[in-house]
Amino acid sequence: MTVTLDVHRPTAVVTGASSGIGRATAHRLVALGWRVIGVGRDPRRCAAAEREIAGGGDGFTMLRGDFTLMSEVIRVASEIRSLTTGLDVLINNAGGVRDRRIVTAEGAEATFAANHLAPFLLTRELLPLLRGTAAARRPRSVRVIAVASTAHRASKGMNWRDLQGLETFHAGGAYVQAKLANILFTRELARRVAAEGIVAQVMHPGVVATNFATYGDPALRAHLAASVQVAPDEPAETLVWLATDPAAGRGSGRYFHRKREEIPAEVARDDDAAGRLWVETEKLLSAMGC
């Protein structure tokens, strides 16, 4: 069923909606009367989320896709475009971390692919929908929201010589680099779409009790186990606020935690790096045929 642009019922896409923060966010938006298209990877979790969130209604649709593969991102974007003629909010929540270097069939490193390349590509593919909706909505109500991490503060800057870590891979370093990329991407996206009334924001969720570290290395799992963790509903509340509240649309390219703006690390505020990352990412995607 195709969803047309509805003045009274906005539409959101939430990636990673089959569990954790994404699932809690999708549930909250549907409860507020939104139409939500979720994206998840695991078939069983996707089916369970759809049963729970949709509840027999038409407010939630779940799509499946493996976002370590850009061909899957392209396919999912096409399915989204077939489902709706309008898109008010895109929440790039899906991500993850690996305990070793995994190179996909497309030649991408899996952590960098899932955390940066996939949200970049999905956003690019859905920009026509976002732009069309922005032209019909009040200014700054159409938004792209990224989920980053305070882990970006451990970075000394993007490794331009080995952007994906294909040559010098370290599990923790790969995640740190990808999360810095989320913030730089949001910063450059905000600059590029400002004139069209689209807002781009980024948040960090804190340490959340989810299955995030399932494929992480022992050090990461031990660190998270020893940390105070919050329930997925807490960061979901911030994501819904970023998606819906007028205050969250004032300014763009900002970084939030618990509905409060924070200042990211200096390397994440580098406009030259943000612009360069956009160009380098386009090159990587072009080499993959995207």
List the keywords.
13% strand, 43% helix, 8 helices, alpha/beta, 8-stranded mixed sheet, 290 residues
Spatially, the strands of the biggest sheet line up as 3-2-1-4-5-6-7-8
In angstroms, what is the radius of gyration? 17 Å
Which CATH architecture would you pick? 3-Layer(aba) Sandwich
Secondary structure class reads: alpha/beta
The global form is: globular
Find the count of extended strands (DSSP E, 2+ residues): 8
Q: For the record, what CATH class applies?
A: Alpha Beta
Distance between the termini: 27 Å
Number of helices: 8
Q: What's the assembly state of these chains?
A: single chain
CATH H-level name... which superfamily? NAD(P)-binding Rossmann-like Domain
Helix content: 40-55%
The percentage of residues in β strands lies in 5-15%
